[in-house]
Amino acid sequence: MLKLGAESLDYRNISDGPSFLLKLTTNPRLPAALRSNLGYLSRHPHADLPDGFRLYVLVGEIRDLNLGTRPAVVLSDEFSYLGDHDIIRVVPRRRSIRTLYRHSARFNSILLTETCNNYCLMCSQPPKSADDSWLLQETLDLIPMIDQDARELCFSGGEPTLLGDGLINLIATAKAWLPRTALHVLSNGRRFADLDFALKYAQIGHPDLMIGIPLYSDLSTHHDYVVQADGAYDETIRGILNLKRAGARIELRVVLHRQTYARLPELADFIVRNLLFVDHVALMGLELTGFTKVNLAELWIDPYDYQRELTKAVETLACYRVNVSIYNHQLCILPESLWGFARQSISDWKNEYLTECTTCDVRSQCGGFFSSGLRRPSHHIAAVRNDIMVSSQ
């Protein structure tokens, strides 16, 4: 698991002041005119540094280094992943940094708000009521700094649609600055029950925009229980219908756990009967963080034990030519008939493997584990060797 942030760092020649965003480079030959807005990144520095950069980000042990009056922050080797074109937030008063964008990552997720109108049993980002409007402004500042070859950005929360026109403006800004970058917005969909808002969203006309909306059951009371919000199901369904009416691309996301797995086949039937127009369905393994940790007794089921329901749901969706994927599952617990639907979906900064995976012949195709999931993996994890499941327990 990558360490994305730290506080109480070794700051040198930096006075207190407002936080700022900083793009990193390892190029010491940049023209002087470009240096003042960039951070110079040096790993295991031991030689003189080039002049003129706004900040010097030094990773690893410092040896015989003449800083002079250059402002610098010293990081441990845990930040050795930092590279050219990465963007960090620097907060002098906390002597902290936070990695906001990694150029080498397949996709980057950007938190827009921690407020939410759902209170999901398994929420991985528990909602907060504090004013965090600064996150939206920070993202607006971040977008122009990102290289135009960025493959995908994900806007998440909390619930991003609670930002109202602020979200609309952000997506339009991303379209203007990063026209070739795919956008994925994670939302509970309830705000789109307002047709006018759904139309505003769709009329941005972004060329590659997908919205991911959770749907946990074919039964309204069941869905509302999982998200802990009365009436949420009806608003979500109306939101989905309004979005498709407006021409938006829609992904349905189903997190699988003890409260959702049993009716998964019925949910698949509901989708093919009523929501066949959706562009993607993602059937997702549970992430053992946030509210999941406190509700674990109510949520946990060994993924191996719901493979019958998962198989039936996938077969139904695939039969009707719905684009369906399985996220956050290990190949060794899935029937081989489902391997073609499994995706490597876990963000690389929190993706890990067990020792059992070391000798597995399909590890390179397997999604692995959330770092949090290593504490409680399936009891059926095994190395796949020459198409034979070889238990390593």
In short:
With 393 residues, the protein is α/β, with parallel strands linked by helices. It contains ten helices and 19 strands. 22% of the residues lie in helices and 21% in strands.
Architecture blueprint of SSEs:
Layout: E1 5-6, E2 10-12, E3 20-25, H1 32-35, E4 38-43, E5 55-59, E6 72-75, E7 87-91, E8 96-101, E9 108-111, H2 134-142, E10 152-156, H3 165-177, E11 182-186, H4 195-202, E12 209-214, H5 220-227, H6 232-245, E13 249-255, H7 264-274, E14 280-284, H8 291-294, H9 296-299, H10 307-319, E15 324-327, E16 351-352, E17 369-370, E18 383-385, E19 388-390
Parallel strand pairs: 3-4, 4-5, 5-6, 9-10, 10-11, 11-12, 12-13, 13-14, 14-15
Antiparallel strand pairs: 1-8, 2-6, 3-7, 7-8, 16-17, 18-19
Helix pairs in contact: 7-10
3D architecture notes:
This protein has helices spanning 32-35, 134-142, 165-177, 195-202, 220-227, 232-245, 264-274, 291-294, 296-299, 307-319; strands spanning 5-6, 10-12, 20-25, 38-43, 55-59, 72-75, 87-91, 96-101, 108-111, 152-156, 182-186, 209-214, 249-255, 280-284, 324-327, 351-352, 369-370, 383-385, 388-390. The chain is of the alpha/beta class and 393 residues long. It has 2 domains: 5-100, no CATH class; 108-390, TIM Barrel, CATH 3.20.20.70. The strands form 4 sheets. An 8-stranded mixed sheet has the order 1-8-7-3-4-5-6-2. A 7-stranded parallel sheet has the order 9-10-11-12-13-14-15, with helices on one face. It has a two-stranded antiparallel ribbon with strand order 16-17. The two termini are 24 Å apart. The relative contact order is 0.09.
